[in-house]
Write a structure and sequence with these properties.
Layout (H helix, E strand, L loop, with lengths): L62 E7 L6 E6 L5 E6 L3 E6 L4 E7 L8 E4 L4 E4 L3 E5 L5 E6 L6 E8 L2 E6 L3 E6 L4 E7 L5 E6 L3 E6 L3 E6 L5 E6 L4 E8 L2 E10 L2 E4 L2 E6 L4 E2 L3 E2 L8 E5 L4 E4 L4 E5 L10 E3 L7 E6 L5 E6 L3 E6 L54 H4 L11 H6 L1 E3 L2 E3 L86 H8 L2 H8 L9 H14 L8 H8 L2 H5 L6 H6 L4 H19 L23 H6 L1 E9 L4 E8 L2 E2 L13 H9 L2 E8 L4 E13 L3 E5 L5 H21 L12 H5 L24 E6 L5 E6 L1 H8 L6 H8 L1 E13 L7 E8 L1 H8 L5 E6 L2 E4 L13 E10 L50 E12 L2 E4 L5 E5 L2 E11 L8 E7 L10 H4 L15 E2 L1 H14 L2 E4 L2 H8 L8 E3 H4 L10 H9 L10 H19 L5 H18 L16 H7 L2
Parallel strand pairs: 35-38, 46-52, 50-51, 52-53
Antiparallel strand pairs: 1-30, 2-3, 3-4, 4-5, 6-7, 7-8, 8-9, 10-11, 11-12, 12-13, 14-15, 15-16, 16-17, 18-19, 19-20, 19-21, 21-22, 21-23, 24-25, 25-26, 26-27, 28-29, 29-30, 31-32, 33-34, 33-37, 36-37, 38-45, 39-40, 39-41, 41-42, 41-45, 42-43, 43-44, 46-49, 47-48, 49-50
Helix pairs in contact: 5-6, 21-22
Length: 1203
Amino acid sequence: MNFEGLDPGLAEYAPAMHSALDPVLDAHLNPSLLQNVELDPEGVALEALPVQESVHIMEGVYSELHSVVAEVGVPVSVSHFDLHEEMLWVGSHGGHATSFFGPALERYSSFQVNGGDDIRQIQSMENGILFLTKNNLKYMARGGLIIFDYLLDESEDMHSLLLTDSSTLLVGGLQNHILEIDLNTVQETQKYAVETPGVTIMRQTNRFFFCGHTSGKVSLRDLRTFKVEHEFDAFTGSLSDFDVHGNLLASCGFSSRLTGLACDRFLKVYDLRMMRAITPLQEECRKGHKRMPVFSRAQWASSSLLGQCQFCEPTGLANPADIFHVNPVGPLLMTFDVSASKQALAFGDSEGCVHLWTDSPEPSFNPYSRETEFALPCLVDSLPPLDWSQDLLPLSLIPVPLTTDTLLSDWPAANSAPAPRRAPPVDAEILRTMKKVGFIGYAPNPRTRLRNQIPYRLKELDSEFDSFSQVTESPIGREEEPHLHMVSKKYRKVTIKYSKLGLEDFDFKHYNKTLFAGLEPHIPNAYCNCMIQVLYFLEPVRCLIQNHLCQKEFCLACELGFLFHMLDLSRGDPCQGSNFLRAFRTIPEASALGLILADSDEASGKGSLARLIQRWNRFILTQLHQDMQELEVPQAYRGAGGSFCSSGDSVIGQLFSCEMENCSLCRCGSETVRASSTLLFTLSYPEDKTGKNYDFAQVLKRSICLEQNTQAWCDNCEKYQPTIQTRNIRHLPDILVINCEVNSSKEADFWRMQAEFAFKMAIKKHGGEISKNKEFALADWKELGSPDGILICPSIEELKNVWLPFSIRMKMTKNKGLDVCNWTDGDELSSLGPSQWGPARAEEEHGVYVYDLMATVVHILDSRTGGSLVAHIKVGETYHQRKEGVTHQQWYLFNDFLIEPIDKHEAVQFDMNWKVPAILYYVKRNLNSRYNLNIKNPIEPNVLLAEASLARKQRKTHTTFIPLMLNEMPQVGDLVGLDAEFVTLNEEEAELRSDGTKSTIKPSQMSVARITCVRGQGPNEGIPFIDDYISTQEQVVDYLTQYSGIKPGDLDAKISSKHLTTLKSTYLKLRFLIDIGVKFVGHGLQKDFRVINLMVPKDQVLDTVYLFHMPRKRMISLRFLAWYFLDLKIQGETHDSIEDARTALQLYRKYLELSKNGTEPESFHKVLKGLYEKGRKMDWKVPEPEGQTSPKNAAVFSSVLAL
């Protein structure tokens, strides 16, 4: 609607049509409208508001019957009488639709149609209501359910719709075309071009389509071709509305004047028989713009913006008695509609009120309306309460109808027995006519059965059902004697028990008595903790990963290097890989491979963890290889195939890459050779059902030098042919990674059977005999030793369930072959001899490689916890030297934060009932001597210098910190005030026990949102040099604004005005400060560093929480300490990290002053006693400004300071 050129008195309302509407009632609103009404703060009233109880209506004369409020303060954009039921529909400028039933205007339904655009037209249909907004057509049931939602192009600006028949709709607007939409298929079927754009009104008769344009023209179009047959230039300015009745067309609108557009006081009338204008009709509406001329009893009804309404005869002037005035609540009247029965008029005003005028006390909207369906009330019979705790409670209290007939649920046993359909046999005609091409058979369809028939599968016939990876609900379903195969306690899934103090009172030392660091399991997708430990204890990987640093925001190699650095610094305290897993979740390939688990699936153990960790193993090696390549442009992930290009090889490629030749031999004799590389191998088990004995080395050789028959393209034959594909090894890797692929009962039975063969052969090897029913005592086994008296088999338990060798020997032959065999140190000594070459020389001169088992990752099947993943790792001498100061090797069990030394035989024993192998790591002997193991800190001082913000709106005027200059670089021992603010990503999961206490199942997942570092000395002491807001791509469920000061939008680069950076950028700054040796001063730094995922040495942390704390007493807040010692009122409405960091620095200075630099602990103890006494009196609350004065003025505090 164009408001330019109107009366100046109306200009004040024009901007409100397009800006946010203020939900405030007009000052002239009738006070009776506010009775029993609670105004919604959003500007939407949920109940209809009757203006008056009853109005006397004179028969035949239109008078106001009822007025209601649809939405307070939101203008009504369209009103429409339902053509099928006794209902009135109202649409608002806020996109909200409301319906009222009957002449009493009782609210029937109310729902949101569009979130931001106004409703421009409403059309009632038999099964629902059509709503048209700017670029959206929505068909909804009368109760509010969506039947279809048709989105138009964003460039469209629709204004009108016309229902040409029951299933076809025309939609027009300000563009130069009209769309035809099929309501049955909800598809656009035709697009009609319009010569004059701007079709805002459409009508239809049995002769023409009538289109009203914004330019003031009315075009008449053919019903079939939609071509223009005639055109009327009704107004020189703009068209307001028109209608057609019989052979007459009447219109109203605006005319152009020197001062702009002015409302035309004449209704232009045209005769459709002669196609020319006839005498116009003059209206008595003095001011405003006419709307909606509608025929009523051979009259036109028109209304103005200011509320005047009149009826005009088609052949003469209006009778003054036919003019009446509607009293709108707001300043303007926005909509007008006439019911099909012509007994009711509906007006909508600019304040959201709807006025119903009728000519009878009990009008009907339609001549023949159907009954309206109402929601049935909830009818609940009052039954006596039943106490189910009483055993003798008579169940007859529940009323049941008495019947002598058989109940429907009482089926005979023959009908209730399950009888699934068996799969029909393959048609004999198909087998007879089938032609085989390779392993695929082709046959014509005899068409004896319907297509797409899927038979039921019977469990008893499905012998190949992959049920091994499924954990049963009860151990009884898995074994005949489940108590013999219970999971050992150290292998069970470990969980952290949280208290109200969080993790502070949880005893991790009970689970880990070593100095190695475990990993916490409560983080999403922490199932890979065991594999992180395996990679960490590979010395070349640990060193090379920590030397890597790049500019990529989510680089797994960088994040893994940061995590390895934390594991190096830890002295037995657990670490968490939250930043690494955060980067892991952002990589699209990880999600595509199904490596991102939902919290519910991870907690319940859904999905095969063995398959998952093997896919993760392949993914992480490939991703690390790409992240560390020397090429500038990283290669795209190649998926699960395991092959990649060797150009620009990385250190990961040097360690894990195995160069191969893939040969493809066609039956025509053509051979194709292609070079490739792989980072790991997958075990391929023989298809042997006779129970043959295999060494692990035989299966491994079969898997590496894989030979298979498959269909492949032959360039010589120019078609797909059966080919023999073989794989030859050109160069063996330094670290041999093997995925076991024990994913079904078939592979598990193979491992179990081979372990039994190995057990028998081990006993025969040591001079003993074994029978099925004979048990041997421990003393008998001690006699089975070597000729020198060395005990080889101290226990029979060490030989059970062992098939995996500790060492394997590989030799490259001259004809590109590979020899693999199990290897022991005794075999090596006897074969080489004392005077011959050692292993290293043998490797160099004869291509002999000896690999030692370094780690095994196993899947623990436990029905009570859903299963878990653990790792057996052989920790080398360098790790023991750094952590414990000793040089020896030892096998350890890593089960998240549980770390325990184990016997080496335990690492290769796999009881397939609960302990299933998943991944094996073999390393070359003397691997560490082949690589440079020096770690050079890749973080340089320039990370502290000024950097650009990610936020587009951030300007220098908003900068809250001054970056360090080159002459201000921190030195060892310098003080830095630090504070961090956080947001919540996942809420805490807790349960209430039967005694009413709260038990935390899973803590809330926090993410750092702001980090501030303040200078602790120098002329600029107290001025921040880091104040970074951390951008996040994860969904934030709670910004904790009251405690963090972070508001929605502060972390969004598109709209934030803060200095926004990535977490990695700020993390590097803090890592540099830690590595340089500064001392951090703050309040509650332990939690800050934990969420930031930093490991800081204890001698570099000065936490005011503990400086001003007495043993076995409560912790004191920073706000109370600042008020008590510094006479400062901080954290009034919200927290500010700059203020908190600066206050912590001042408190530390105060601590040094009171304790005389720590030389007088007794005097400071008295100060703390006074602090706690004052806190108890004040209930640890800081008084209001008009309340109690600062304690510095109190006699108690002054006497304490005198000490």
